[in-house]
Specification:
Layout lengths: L1 H26 L3 E5 L19 H6 L9 E4 L6 E5 L21 E5 L2 H6 L6 E4 L13 H11 L4 H26 L4 H12 L11 E4 L21 E6 L2 E2 L2 E2 L2 E6 L4 H19 L7 H18 L7 H6 L2 H5 L19 E3 L2 E3 L20 E4 L2 E3 L2 H8 L9 H7 L4 E3 L2 E4 L6 E2 H8 L1
Pfam family, one: PepQ_N
Catalytic activity: Xaa-L-Pro dipeptide + H2O = an L-alpha-amino acid + L-proline
Cofactor: Mn(2+)
């Protein structure tokens, strides 16, 4: 892996430098300064939250634990890293930079934040930072950010290599979680099995894991982690990812107990539908159109399993499918789980609105080569949404006994990370699952 990254990184850096040059020209800036950021302080305490590096910083470098550091890009000059290595016996001091990328940077080591700011160049500066910094004006200029965010949607081969690694780690951990479920473990212990297999702590994961047994699978962002296993483990919905040098994987799987054959059949139908949507991740495909298409296909799944008696078209038009599939089909992914520019109209900004009736869709772009998106359809049995559905005219075309039979299983979500290419899509998740 190291040799591959060493080979791919110079071209990745060249792409970022070229993008930065063009972004600076749009705003008339001389320098691009990117702060790694600092840990956020807890209210009324002298402790910090876990550090989360500025994604713009880790785009340039595989450094995710360098608080107080800066990247300096000046067109025509070698990029510079101002690396904060404080004198500190309270915390682990970051090691001096090393690895395949250091030869491509001028590196200056400083001992405190004031020295770091003093090392920054003067002039007309575009300063990208997540919070205010003493001694420097943080401007986060829109023209620069819009350009960089737009082009961040197109992953370099270096980035894709790291995302494949994040998928490999995530699928390995998902296998361990599935084994723990089959051993009747609690949600907490399933989560611990996941962390152990990923070899990552919670703060290192790209997002907080969702581990829901039985009815908890109907809570879209369930995060309680019961410590005691239920008397009967009927189903597991686990949505969990992993990180590789700051790049994310985002994977969801749903499992049924061995004796839950009807729910397993529903899982199988959603899985087949999901693979059909993955196959449509191709250049020129409108993501909103794909999302609406998913509603029609999932309406067919609900009809196939006897839950609906109406046509797919009628179910979508009446909003019935939104009660069972209330979230978006997916989102852009990369340096962040919900990566930037999912709604952006172009490199100068602008917004592409969501289609009417689909307020939770996180991606409205047309797919192009180099983009990476999640494909995550689901079917859920959520009390609040079902209660609202009972009051609609379409309620007469729903088999409520079937709904009640499925409610103890919570819900189903199947999610893969997929690369749009010049041809057939690359499924990072399933490819990694096959290798593990």
């Amino acid at each position: 892996m190291h040799d591959q990254l060493a080979t791919l990184y110079p071209r990745h850096l060249a792409v970022l430098r070229d993008r930065a040059d063009k972004a600076l020209a749009l705003g008339g800036f001389d320098h691009l300064l990117i702060a790694a950021g600092m840990p956020a302080e807890k209210f009324l305490d002298d402790q910090d939250f876990p550090f989360a590096v500025n994604p713009h910083f880790k785009h340039w470098l595989p450094l995710t634990d360098a608080p107080g550091s800066w990247i300096i890009h000046t067109p025509g000059q070698k990029p510079k890293l101002v690396f904060l290595q404080p004198r500190d016996y309270w915390h682990v001091v970051p090691q001096a930079p090393q690895g395949y990328w250091v030869e491509h940077f001028e590196i200056v080591i400083v001992r405190n934040a004031a020295e770091a700011v003093a090392a920054l160049p003067a002039g007309h500066r575009a300063v990208i930072a997540p919070a205010a910094v003493d001694g420097i004006e943080v401007n986060n200029p829109a023209a620069v950010l819009d350009y960089l965010h737009w082009h961040r949607s197109y992953k370099t081969p270096y980035e894709l290599a790291l995302m494949r690694e994040a998928s490999r780690i995530g699928t390995r951990a998902h296998r361990a979680a599935a084994d723990a479920f089959r051993a009747s473990a609690s949600e907490f212990d399933i989560h611990m099995a996941y962390l152990d297999a990923a070899r990552q702590i919670d703060a290192e994961l790209p997002y907080a894991s969702i581990v829901g047994l039985n009815e908890h699978g109907a809570v879209l962002h369930y995060s309680r982690f019961d410590r005691t296993p239920p008397s009967t483990s009927r189903s597991l919905l686990i949505d969990a990812g992993a990180s590789a040098a700051g790049y994310a994987s985002d994977i969801t799987r749903t499992y049924a107990a061995a004796d839950a054959s009807e729910f397993q059949a529903l899982i199988d139908s959603v899985d087949a539908a999901q693979q059909g949507f993955v196959a449509m991740v191709r250049a020129g495909q409108s993501y909103p159109d794909l999302h609406v298409h998913a509603h029609h296909v999932l309406a067919g799944v609900l009809r196939e399993h006897g839950i609906l008696r109406m046509s797919a078209e009628s179910a979508v038009e009446a909003g019935v499918t939104s009660a069972f599939f209330p979230h978006g089909l997916g989102h852009s992914i990369g340096l962040q789980v919900h990566d930037v520019a999912g709604f952006q109209q172009g490199e100068r900004g602008g917004t592409i609105p969501r289609p009417a009736g689909h307020p939770y869709l996180r991606m409205t772009r047309t797919l192009e080569p180099g983009m990476v998106v999640t494909i995550e359809p689901g079917l859920y049995f959520i009390d609040m949404l079902l209660a609202e559905l009972r009051d609609k005219p379409a309620a007469k075309d729903i088999d409520w006994a079937k709904v009640e039979a499925f409610k103890p299983y919570g819900g189903i979500r199947i999610e893969d990370d997929v690369v749009c290419t010049e041809g057939a899509p690359e499924n990072l998740t399933r490819d990694a699952w096959g290798r593990e």
